[in-house]
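Question: Send over one sample?
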Amino acid sequence: MAVEPQTALLEATEDRRAAGSEPAGAESHTPGRESRVKRWGRRGSYVLVMLGALALWELIVAAHLFPAVALPSPVHVLHSFAKTATKGYLGKTLGQDILYSVVRVGIGFLGAVVLGVPIGLLMAESALVHRVVDPFLQLGRPVPPLAYIPLFVVWFGLGELPKILLILVGTIPIMIISTIGGVRSIPQQRYEVARCLGAKRRQIFARVTLPSTLPEIFTGMKVGIGIAWSTLVAAELIAASVGLGWLVEQAATQLRTGIVIAGIIVIGILGYLMELGIRLVERAVIPWRGNV
């Protein structure tokens, strides 16, 4: 009597286990478990790298390669952070500095996304819009945001608006360019299939153009949030009296290097947390794309 293929496969598997060629429980090594192991291994490597960097930092300080005022020890930086967090600096608490900076970066970055994505979509879809906007984009993109400070002070005064606009101006080009690149990378076969199925222009945009462009848009957002934080220090030079950029600048003028390094680390952590937030939204909106 003929043996069914499934039965033969199971019998062969049991024979290999009995012979020791295949370990028992091998079927438990699912792709999901392997991915979790890889994730924990990657996180463990991050921790080891950071611990190694701290150890190297401490060795450099102990070797007196730099003056203590130029490179304080990790313990001194931690003490400066704790003192600033509890007692504040120049009349402002660290919580206030973080709050103001996060709000400024958040509003400026979201403004760049809200404006940059539609502009990029229009430029990719319309040759006329592209010819009108592209010269201004190419001329303004290489200009560092710091160069706009005098104009923004004259035009908008010394309040919060010029700081937020400076972050927006520094971030919006990457959103426009990433959106254009996303639209132009869409294979034409997707449009042809949609038209063959009777989709109208609005349906093609909603079902083909926008979903296919989202991966590049989120890539631009992850790059843009870093640009927004790097622009923050320049933005808070505009007569600011609170904020992480202001804290770093004021501490630098008084050679409080421990506070400077602590402020830089806080900026880096906040920027990384915001990028993680963008990644979580990306996984929810476009789960079909692999995230790293």
DSSP finds eleven helices and no strands in the chain. Residues 201-235 form the longest helix (35 residues). Residues 1-10, 16-28 have pLDDT under 50 and may be disordered.
